[in-house]
Design goal:
Layout: H1 2-38, H2 51-56, H3 61-67, E1 74-82, H4 86-103, E2 106-115, H5 131-134, E3 139-140, H6 148-158, H7 177-194, E4 209-211, E5 227-231, H8 235-239, H9 249-257, E6 264-269, H10 284-298, E7 303-308, H11 312-321, E8 324-326, H12 331-339, E9 344-348, E10 370-373, H13 390-396, E11 415-417, H14 424-429, E12 477-481, H15 493-499, E13 504-508, H16 510-520, H17 525-531, H18 538-553, E14 555-558, H19 568-571, E15 578-579, E16 582-586, H20 601-608, E17 620-622, E18 626-629, H21 634-664
Parallel strand pairs: 1-2, 5-6, 5-8, 6-7, 8-9, 9-10, 12-13, 12-14
Antiparallel strand pairs: 2-3, 4-7, 10-11, 14-18, 15-18, 16-17
C-alpha cells in the first residue's frame, strides 16, 4: 500500500509538471503569434543583436502579461537568417538561445525572415530550400525557469555580448556547444530528407576540380567524404586581418596522414562569384590548384574533389558527418563542426573564434571531438609576398623553426585537444591581463614611482631596420592605434609610412596597448582609469593609451583614418617639444566640457583672465587625432592628470552616494 502511495504521488507529480510545461508552451506560442500578428519587427543589424537590451527595456512585457499572469521571462529574437554570411547570422541566433538557456529564460523567435539569394546553387526547389532554417528551434521552454529577478540578474551577468559574439571568449554559446550541435544536426537532417542526393556529390565542370587515380573507374562520388576540408579563400585573402587567413597546406596534410580513412577527400571552397570584384578572388583558383597538386602528391590513391560553391546546406552535412573535418578561420565551419559528434574536428587558432589567439588563450570547447591546430599559424599578412605567388611556397613549405603557437602539452601532430584539464577560473579571466580593484586602485599615484626610460626597447613582435637618430627633442616614433595589429590598414597609411622612411612605425592593437599599459603603468591610477573602460569603447581607451605612450617615449601619434601629407621631419624643428592643432569647427562659446578637466577656450580664457576677443585658440577645440610630443612634456603630463582626476571625481561621487545609502542610512 505504501509503495502504491509513493507511486501514485510520483505519477501525479509527473502529470502536474507535464501539464505545467504544456501550459507554458501554449503561452509561448500565443505570445509568439501576438507579436507576429500585431507588431512590425525589424531585423537586427549585422553588427548588433538587441535581444538583451530589449529584454531590459521590457519591450515585450505588455504582450507577455496579456497572455499570462505568471512571472514569465522570455528572450525574443527576430529570426532573420540568410544563406550569405550563414555562419554570422547563425552565430547571433545560437548565442541568444545560449543566453536564455544559461539564464533560465524561455526563448522565442519571431518574424521569420529567411533570405536565399543563391537559390540556383541549391539542389532543392521552392519551399524545400528553407527546410534547414525552418527546422531550427523557434520556441524553447527552459525547464529551469525561475522568478524574474533571478533571471534578470543572470541575463545581466551571462549575456554581456551583443556584437560579434563568436569572437568573445565569455559569450554564452561557448557553454552550450553540445545543444547547439544538436540543433544544427536536426536542421541538416531535415534538409537531407527533402534534398535529392541520389547522385551523391556532383561536380561542376566549370568551377570544380576532380582528381581520380588511374585505376579508379567509379562514376559516383559519395555525399559524405572521409575527409572534409572547408577552405575559405576569395574575400578571405582580401581581408588581411588577424581573424582571417589561409591554413598552410602542410598542416592539413599532417592531419590527413594520421586519419585512418582517406579514400575521399573533399575541399569545400567559396564560390568564385563571392566578392567577384576583389582582385584577390581570382587568385584563389591558383591557390586551390596548388592545394590539389599537394594533396595528389601525398595521397595518390585518394579521390580528391575541390568544390567551389554549390549547395551550402549539403556542405554543412559533409562537415557535420565526415570522420575528419578540417576548418578554415571561418564562422561558416564553426556550427557544423559543433554538430559533428562522430568524427574529429580540427580548427585553426584564430581570435575570430572566442579570441583564441594561441593555444594558451584558446577557448576551452569541451566537446571530445574538438582539436585546435597548433603546428602552424594561419597566414594573414598577404602583402608581405612579392610577387604574390610567393604565398604558394609559404603554404606548401613546413618551416624548420617550430611555430610560436606551441601547445602546453604537445602531441606528434602539434594538436591540442580542448578536452583537457583547464583551470576554469583562469580560463575565464586570462584575457584580463590585470584585475582592477575598483575600490582601491583609483587611490594609487597617477604615474609610476620609477619612471621608465625614455629610450624605447623594441618588443618581440616588432621588426625594424631603422636606427633612430636623436637630433631633435621629438624622437622618431610614429604611433598608430588599431583594433588588431595585423588588420589591413586604411588606404592612406602606406603613403604616410613612405613619406617618413626614417621613423619607427608602431602599429598597436588592443592586445599591445593592454600589454604596454600593464607593464609600464602597473600600480597606478592611470592603469585603473584605462581598465575601467571596455574595449567596446575602444576610442576612449585609445585616448588614454596615446597620452601614456607619448608621455613615456614621445613621438607622433596619428589616427589610423587620418593622414599628414607633409613629411614629419619637415614639420618638426629641432627644439619643438609639442605640436598640436585644432578642429575646423568651433563650439560657439558653449561649455562643452567641464573646464576643470578639459582643455578648451573657456578654461584658458578664465585661467589667464584674458578677454574673449583675444581668441587664444581661435574659437576652436584642440584635436587629438594628431599629437607630436617630446617625452614627459608638461602639457601631456597635466592632460593625464586631468583625465584621471576627472574619472576619480565621478567615481568617488557615485561611490560615496552608494556608501551613504547602504551603510549609513
Amino acid at each position: 500500500m505504501l509503495k502504491f502511495n509513493y507511486f501514485s504521488f510520483y505519477l501525479i507529480l509527473c502529470i502536474l509538471v507535464k501539464s505545467l510545461q504544456v501550459n507554458n508552451i501554449t503561452n509561448l506560442i500565443e505570445i509568439q503569434n501576438k507579436i507576429n500578428q500585431n507588431y512590425a519587427v525589424d531585423c537586427f543589424s549585422d553588427s548588433y543583436s538587441a535581444t538583451r537590451d530589449e529584454y531590459f527595456k521590457n519591450k515585450w512585457t505588455e504582450v507577455i502579461s496579456s497572455v499570462t499572469k505568471d512571472d514569465m521571462n522570455v528572450l525574443v529574437y527576430p529570426m532573420c537568417l540568410r544563406l550569405f554570411q550563414l555562419g554570422n547570422t547563425l552565430g547571433y541566433f545560437f548565442n541568444e538561445i545560449a543566453c536564455a538557456a544559461m539564464s533560465g529564460a524561455h526563448f522565442i523567435s519571431i518574424k521569420k525572415n529567411f533570405e536565399i539569394k543563391e537559390y540556383e546553387s541549391l539542389v532543392t526547389v521552392g519551399k524545400n530550400q528553407f527546410e534547414f532554417f525552418n527546422n531550427l528551434p523557434d520556441i524553447i521552454l527552459n525547464p529551469n525557469h525561475e522568478n524574474g529577478d533571478k533571471i534578470r540578474n543572470k541575463v545581466r551577468d551571462n549575456c554581456i555580448c551583443t556584437q560579434y559574439c563568436w569572437e568573445n571568449n565569455n559569450a554564452p554559446w561557448l557553454h552550450q556547444t553540445e545543444i547547439i550541435g544538436e540543433y544544427v544536426r536536426k536542421a541538416i537532417n531535415a534538409y537531407l530528407k527533402v534534398a535529392d542526393t541520389s547522385g551523391g556529390t556532383l561536380i561542376n565542370s566549370t568551377t570544380d576540380y576532380l582528381y581520380k587515380p588511374e585505376n579508379n573507374n567509379s562514376s559516383k562520388l559519395p555525399l559524405i567524404p572521409d575527409i572534409a576540408i572547408q577552405y575559405r579563400c576569395g574575400d578571405n585573402i582580401g581581408f588581411g586581418k588577424t581573424r582571417y587567413g589561409l591554413l598552410p597546406f602542410y598542416s592539413m596534410i599532417n592531419i590527413i596522414k594520421n586519419s585512418s580513412i582517406k579514400n575521399y577527400i573533399y575541399v569545400l571552397a567559396d564560390s568564385p562569384s563571392r566578392q567577384i570584384t576583389s582582385p584577390y578572388s581570382s587568385r584563389c583558383g591558383i591557390i586551390l590548384q596548388s592545394l590539389l597538386d599537394n594533396l595528389k602528391k601525398h595521397f595518390p590513391s585518394s579521390i580528391i574533389a575541390i568544390k567551389r560553391g554549390g549547395d551550402q546546406f549539403l556542405d554543412y552535412a559533409r562537415l557535420a558527418y565526415s570522420p575528419t573535418t578540417i576548418c578554415s578561420a571561418s564562422t561558416f565551419c564553426l556550427w557544423p563542426a559543433l554538430a559533428n559528434n562522430k568524427g574529429k574536428i580540427y580548427f585553426p587558432l584564430t581570435p575570430l573564434i572566442a579570441n583564441s589567439w594561441d593555444i594558451n588563450t584558446a577557448a576551452n570547447i569541451t566537446l571530445p571531438q574538438w582539436n585546435w591546430i597548433t603546428d602552424s599559424e594561419i597566414i594573414k599578412d598577404f602583402k608581405q609576398f612579392r610577387p604574390w605567388t610567393a604565398l604558394i611556397n609559404a603554404l606548401e613549405t613546413e618551416p624548420l623553426i617550430p611555430t610560436l603557437n606551441k601547445p602546453l602539452e604537445s602531441t606528434n601532430l602539434g594538436i591540442k585537444s580542448s578536452n583537457s584539464n583547464v583551470d576554469e577560473k583562469k580560463f575565464h579571466n586570462r584575457n584580463r591581463m590585470r584585475e582592477v580593484d575598483l575600490i582601491n586602485d583609483w587611490k594609487l599615484p597617477i604615474f609610476p614611482l620609477n619612471a621608465p626610460s625614455k629610450e624605447y626597447i623594441s618588443r618581440s613582435y616588432e621588426t625594424t631596420n631603422i636606427s633612430l637618430t636623436h637630433d631633435k627633442l621629438v624622437p622618431r616614433h610614429l604611433w598608430i592605434a588599431v583594433r588588431n595589429r595585423s588588420e589591413e590598414l586604411n588606404v592612406q597609411m602606406p603613403g604616410l609610412f613612405e613619406r617618413n622612411p626614417n621613423w619607427f612605425v608602431h602599429v598597436e592593437g588592443n592586445y599591445e596597448k593592454d600589454l604596454f599599459m600593464n607593464e609600464t603603468f602597473a600600480n597606478t591610477s592611470l592603469l585603473w582609469a584605462y581598465h575601467i573602460l571596455s574595449h567596446q569603447v575602444g576610442a576612449a581607451k585609445a585616448d588614454i593609451w596615446r597620452y601614456a605612450v607619448l608621455w613615456t617615449y614621445g613621438g607622433a601619434y596619428i589616427d589610423d583614418d587620418s593622414d599628414m601629407k607633409v613629411p614629419l621631419d619637415k614639420v618638426i624643428e629641432p627644439l619643438d617639444s609639442l605640436i598640436v592643432s585644432y578642429e575646423q569647427n568651433g563650439f560657439n562659446g558653449d561649455r562643452c566640457y567641464i573646464p576643470k578637466y578639459h582643455l578648451s577656450d573657456v578654461y584658458v580664457y578664465e585661467k589667464n583672465n584674458t578677454a574673449r576677443n583675444l581668441n587664444v585658440f581661435y574659437g576652436k577645440i584642440l584635436l587629438n587625432w594628431a599629437i607630436i610630443s617630446a617625452p614627459r612634456h608638461p602639457i601631456i603630463t597635466r592632460t593625464i592628470e586631468n583625465l584621471v582626476e576627472g574619472k576619480i571625481t565621478i567615481f568617488t561621487l557615485i561611490y560615496y552616494i552608494f556608501y551613504y545609502l547602504y551603510y549609513i542610512k
